[in-house]
Amino acid sequence: MDNHKRTVVVTGFGPFGEHSINASWVAVQELKKLGLGNEVELHVYEVPVEYQTVQTLVPSLWKQYHPQLVVHVGLSGMATTVTLEKCGHNHGYKGLDNCSFCPDSQCCVEGGPDCIDSVIDMDSVCKRVAASGLGVAVSVSKDAGRYLCDFTYYTSLYLSHGRSAFIHVPPLGKPYTGEDLGRALQAIVREMLDIQEQSEAKINCQHAH
């Protein structure tokens, strides 16, 4: 029955700047412990905060796993909620990465659209998770910050025709623990899969007529 399993890849980022422990990777590791249920095969990866690594790693994850969904998780020092990002941006990458590098073009994909939206309805995911009484505040944003988070998200959206998601988490203890963030990721990714399945069922239904 394994052929009915859905594959999900979730990434978090490694240390950068003053963040020697990156809350996004801690949260992803907590999610791995919790899992997404027997019907979902979950793979997790830690992504270095490096533009060039992202440009090779993200395509390789899509190619290797052919996942139903890829969810990238990143840290925002300014966030106080778990934030669902609606879209990725192609231009404006001026911040240097851990290798003191930034793309000469300051863009992700030369000739790509300025902005790509996720096919997942983040407002619906947000409402559902908020209504579930999780005890972790969730919000929605349209600006993933023009750094490695946004860069990774756009790259993934471009490759997958929008079948990617990005979640920003606040730093650990401000106000949530790693366990809280892991539970939040579990609830969010489950809702994303649910919404994705429903929209695919609708499309199949339309094709059938």
Rounded mean pLDDT is: 94
The helix count comes to 5
Main beta sheet: 6 strands, mixed
Strand/helix succession: EHEHEEEEHEHEH
Distance between the termini: 29 Å
What is the total tally of β strands? 8
The Cα radius of gyration reads 16 Å
Uncertain runs with pLDDT below 50, 5 residues or more? none
Strand neighbour order, sheet with most strands:
2-1-3-8-4-7
Q: Please give the share of residues in helix.
A: 25-40%
Percent of sequence in beta strands? 15-25%
Q: What overall form do the CA principal axes indicate? A: globular
**Structural class label:** alpha/beta
What do you see in this structure?
The protein has 209 residues and is α/β, with parallel strands linked by helices. It is built from 5 helices and 8 strands, in the order βαβαββββαβαβα. A 6-stranded mixed beta sheet has the order 2-1-3-8-4-7, with helices on both faces. Helix 3 packs across helix 5 (178-208). It has helices at 23-34, 51-65, 122-131, 148-160, 178-208, and strands at residues 6-13, 40-47, 69-75, 82-85, 87-89, 115-117, 138-141, 164-169.
